[in-house]
Amino acid sequence: MKEIINPDVVIESDIVRKELLLKEDGADSKIKKLYITNVPENAFAFTLDYQPGGQANRWFKQLSPYVDVANAQGVNKGCDLIILWQVGERPYALVFDLKSDKPKQEATQKQLNNSEVFLKYLLAMVNLHYGIATDTLQIKKAIGTTDNRAVRKGATYRPNATATHLDGYHIEVITPRAYQTGYIPLPQLAR
């Protein structure tokens, strides 16, 4: 995968601290820096939401230049982060997006599904060109949000609830700290 992905979209991890930093530049972002902790040494991370600005931005305006940028169905929506790692012989991937406000379920589902389909395309390229089997990869999908109301309470009151599972993905609440930073462990996102 490292040979296929454009180096400009790779998110480097700090091997010593076992974390990676996801930066959000949006004016309405309540978390500008999200530290994902407990990241394995063998992890590889990249974004599908790269926006370099200037002339280069036109290449990253959509997931593929073969898809109409004006399409309003969400086919060009990508997520903030994809992390690939391995535990023993078992490979995993996390498709993740950070939302400051309560995620809109239908739009969020499209965004995560679209990113998963794009990841599967990249994995098919790995299989085709490098002869590496990718069919055992387990893909997890998660949304991080700063809005406590995004977590649905079950029929029984659960005061410590921090996640809601919905249609193949789950929502994790991330509380902003000083200087608009947030922290969350990868195992919590990938459950």
Briefly say what this structure is:
This protein is α/β, with parallel strands linked by helices.
Task: Detail the topology: elements first, then pairings.
Blueprint: E1 10-11, E2 13-14, E3 19-23, E4 33-37, E5 44-46, E6 81-87, E7 90-99, H1 105-130, E8 138-145, E9 163-166, E10 169-173, E11 181-185, H2 186-189
Parallel strand pairs: 4-11, 7-8, 8-10
Antiparallel strand pairs: 1-5, 2-3, 3-4, 5-6, 6-7, 9-10
What does the model show?
By secondary structure, this protein is of the alpha/beta class. The chain has one domain (7-189). 16% of the residues lie in helices and 29% in strands. The chain has two helices and eleven strands, in the order βββββββαββββα. The chain has helices at 105-130, 186-189; strands at 10-11, 13-14, 19-23, 33-37, 44-46, 81-87, 90-99, 138-145, 163-166, 169-173, 181-185. The strands form two sheets. A seven-stranded mixed sheet has the order 1-5-6-7-8-10-9. Strands 2-3-4-11 form a four-stranded mixed sheet. Strand 6 and strand 7 form a beta hairpin. Residues 153-161 have low confidence and may be disordered.
**Averaged pLDDT, please?**
85
Distance between the termini: 23 Å
Helix amount: 10-25%
Q: What does the radius of gyration come to?
A: 17 Å
What does the largest sheet look like? 7 strands, mixed
Oligomer: single chain
> How many separate structural domains?
1
